[in-house]
Design brief:
Rossmann fold, 3-stranded antiparallel sheet, 9 strands, alpha/beta, 192 residues, globular, 6-stranded mixed sheet
Amino acid sequence: MRIFLADIRGRMAESMKESEHEMLFRREEIAARVAEIGAQISHDFAGESVLLVGVLKGAAVFLADLARSISVETTFDFVAISSYKGVKTTGAVRLIKDLDTPIGGRNVILVEDILDTGLTVVFLRKLLLQHKPKSLKIAACLDKPARRLEKIDADYVAFSIPNHFVVGYGMDYQERFRNLPDICILNSEEAI
């Protein structure tokens, strides 16, 4: 059985019509900001290499685009964390997948989709610092300072946003909408 690209696009368009979301950032805006962050990281680490540590699953798309926009030698690894149930954070952060790559003595950039309450990033920062990296920076696609419970800031931020639940560009609601190419505010009817 053959599946044609037009069929896939048609089904995707139909499913997106069923759940219209308010556009927050278009793919072109995202690409431009990611390129700017990549250029800044390349400048900050000129002559050195960096290891990007992505937080699965939400940061995977941002990390992939960011890695391609960095001109210095770049490798990446992933960690997986659990702290959300639906649209609410549980407040309890647990490590589901640890690093596969040793980070001691390396320039590490923790790549997160959203810097929200700060609980996940503070947890991961402490965990990663135990491995004694040469440096540890934080890159976030989105920053939601209004929700911050922990005092922490990212070194590189694509966009700062108000307190909305967002989907697309790797971010999800119950594993849905990760494939949207833009960042959108979740339609409240979807969050029921």
